[in-house]
Design a protein that fits this description.
single chain; alpha/beta; six-stranded parallel β-sheet; 18 helices; 13 strands
């Protein structure tokens, strides 16, 4: 894959004038990665500006490294610009080819040390424990060893793959040292949080397994310290959409409001896209609809082939170039939105950011599975189907597409009201309120 063109476009949006100098640093897999937490980082960054932070830095990986890792990426030219005051930094690797992946981590840690020792009061937030919280923890340790003034508060957010891909794997393979490293860095943060109750429970249960084998006390500390912080979403991007704008966006894709069933997420087997394709083909009510599958990911080629072999092949469209500005319109215009995610060893849906975005945008009902943290995202506002059950998806499509207008409107309103609680400003304020009072004071009023 050829790396996207250089850097996001500069923004013309102005930020409010800060009353005192303070900084937010977010360490994350940022744009152009197709990931809900990439969008969450943007929303937290924007919220910090609105709350008077003088500068915000998103510290992430060079684009060529993201490409080499095989992560699903958006076309960089489709990424919306950040507001003035938000800077995306991609530190260069340190050393040459004789230091393999550690070169990039050294570059990341080195840049964080520089930021942590320049005297500016800083909140450093890491999304994904490995390697981002590990990098922040090491940078704080090194910064303090320099003897320079360090005024840093740390927030570490655990997402599902932290546990399924790292901690739980360490437990299964009896890699005690690696698990202890991740959990120690996590609990060493001033504010350790998880993106859902499900994720927190997963962290605790994995820690219990480590404790039972090695006599440690990680689980007790996790139960005492880990709080819930749901992902931050810019609700304004999805509320009060202009129907005329939505219609124009859809027309550019050859679509009309209500003419299609939508899936918009990564193309990975754990997302249940194969079950959706089979269920769509089996639904009598969907016979006159198009299935729009928007996204990219590791299983794209396999799913294209699966769709081509379907009896509904002529009514299935794949879109792999949907920009951030198109998402709200595509969501608002769909007849129903389906995300039949299923738990897999390598991935469990720990929240469901795309579901909340859809609920804010309006449109037809959400059809999904009550797995992982999805139930916390949708509450009681969605049609729930069992995992890996195409016929249940077909039945739910028949129900959703056959609802009377008044029932559809009631479901839409209930879903939107539930989703408003995840607004980025509210999430950001709750996060900062968890910092120790002396650290909040050092940041000044906000």
């Amino acid at each position: 894959m050829t790396p996207p063109p250089e850097g996001p476009r500069p923004s013309r949006r102005r930020r409010p004038r800060a009353r005192t100098r303070r900084r937010l640093v977010i360490v994350v897999r940022a744009d152009p990665v197709i990931c809900g937490h990439s969008g969450e980082a943007r929303n937290l960054a924007e919220a910090a500006l609105l709350r008077g932070f003088s500068e915000v830095k998103i510290v992430t990986w060079p684009v060529e490294r993201l490409v080499a890792a095989g992560l699903p990426l958006k076309p960089l030219e489709s990424v919306q610009p950040y507001s003035e005051g938000i800077e995306v930094e991609r530190p260069e690797p340190v050393g040459d080819y004789r230091v393999p992946d550690g070169r990039y981590l050294s570059g990341l840690v080195g840049r964080l040390v520089e930021l942590f020792t320049d005297g500016v009061p800083t909140v450093a937030m890491s999304l994904y424990l490995s390697p981002h919280t590990l990098a922040v923890s090491e940078a704080v340790r090194v910064a303090r060893e320099t003897g320079l003034p360090v005024r840093v508060s740390t927030i570490a957010e655990a997402v599902g793959s932290d546990v399924t891909n790292v901690v739980r794997t360490c437990v299964e393979k009896q890699q005690f040292g690696a698990a202890a490293q991740v959990l120690t860095a996590y609990l060493g943060s001033d504010v350790p949080v998880a993106v859902s109750e499900y994720t927190r429970d997963l962290v605790v249960s994995s820690a219990e397994a480590i404790d039972a084998r090695h006599g440690t006390r990680f689980a007790e500390r996790c139960r005492e310290r880990v709080a819930i912080s749901y992902p931050a979403i810019n609700t304004a991007d999805y509320l009060d959409l202009d129907p005329a704008v939505t219609a124009r966006v859809l027309a550019a894709r050859g679509l009309t409001p209500g003419s299609y069933v939508l899936y918009l997420s990564r193309l990975a087997r754990a997302k249940g896209v194969d079950d959706l394709i089979a269920g769509f083909a089996a639904s009598p009510a969907a016979a006159g609809k198009t299935l729009v599958i928007a996204g990219n990911g590791p299983d794209a080629a396999e799913l294209h082939a699966f769709a081509a072999a379907s009896t509904a092949a002529e009514r299935i469209r794949f879109l792999d170039d949907v920009g951030d500005d198109e998402k709200p319109a595509l969501m608002a215009g769909c007849a129903t939105f389906v995300l039949p995610s299923k738990p897999m060893p390598e991935f469990v849906e720990t929240f469901g950011i795309a579901l909340v975005e859809k609920m804010l945008a309006g449109g037809g009902p959400v059809i999904t599975c009550d797995t992982g943290g999805i139930g916390e995202a949708v509450g009681e506002t969605a049609l729930i189907v069992p995992v890996e059950d195409p016929q249940a998806i077909a039945d739910a499509l028949d129900e959703a597409l056959g609802l009377p207008d008044i029932e559809r409107e009631m479901m839409e309103l209930a879903a939107r009201e539930h989703a408003r609680q995840f607004d980025r400003l509210a999430v950001f304020d709750r996060l900062l309120a968890r910092l120790p009072s002396d650290q909040v004071a050092s940041l000044g009023a906000y």
